[in-house]
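Subject: Glycosyl hydrolase 94 supersandwich domain-containing protein

B.,
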Amino acid sequence: MVAQVNCRGYVISQFMQPEPAKYSHGPNLEAKTFIQPEQPFYTEHSGRFFYIKDHATGDVFSLPYEPMRKTLDSFVFNAEMSEVRWQIKHLSWQFDIIFNLDLETNLEYWSLDVKNSDDSERKLSIYTCFSIGYMSWMNQGATFEPELNTIVASSVTAYQKVEDYPTVKNLNDKTFLMSDKKATSWCCSFADFVGEGGLTQPDAIQHGVLPSKTVNYETPIAVLQHDVTLEKHANESLCFLFGPANNIEEISEIKSKCHLAYFNNVRAEYLNYVQQCVGNLHFDSPNVGLNHVVNYWLPRQGVLPRRC
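Prediction pasted inline below.
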């Protein structure tokens, strides 16, 4: 499992089955390559976005930055040793976004912590929007599974020879987005979600409640809506799992991992794993960035224990 994360919210992720495969794509047919360095990004590029609507002011903005690109009151991006983290403040709201990977599974772990910094009760809607994109010309679609509180997109990897099907059917061609909290509404249709406004101003968000639209043979997207009411200085945490699967039964088994306690355990295990890559030599200079590269990045480029 490899993930390339951009501070703006764009993410490229691949896993092996046994060849490199994706579960989150761009909006059109992509050439199959491994992750390219320094590639250009565009608005519909695969990403993990959170649209926020403040019910008191009517303001709508996106986290961590794309695709609405609105200037935020405070923005901090931390590429830490074992996780990626954003700390954002805007309109008296505080947001803490954490992205992590698991040691054993091909899953993305995301958490969003929201705090009301105001002295009065406030309401907001959170629209978690994770790209799925153009999966296959043979078959693609998505629906919401209420018992799992999960959006599941399905596809069939394109093949031409009948004898290839036994191999293709065993591939992890499903993509799912799962939340630990019951969703207020959802949308699986890219076209219905963006409408005429595109990802920079999605029509579905302007309407308030997502259209709960499934798709067949159309480009899917995974959007979950959570309406949250917070007392003064209160906070709310949401956890999400995003990744590939072979069937619904596999996703059902993963459901038990979608809660904050398990997420914190994954963070601790991954930190312990990465610390095995820290060398015995510690470099200290006035340049903090250089220190980080020498002490934490360079040691991870060689032959390291376990799966490093």
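Residues 2-275 form a domain with the Beta-galactosidase; Chain A, domain 5 fold (CATH 2.70.98.40).

T.
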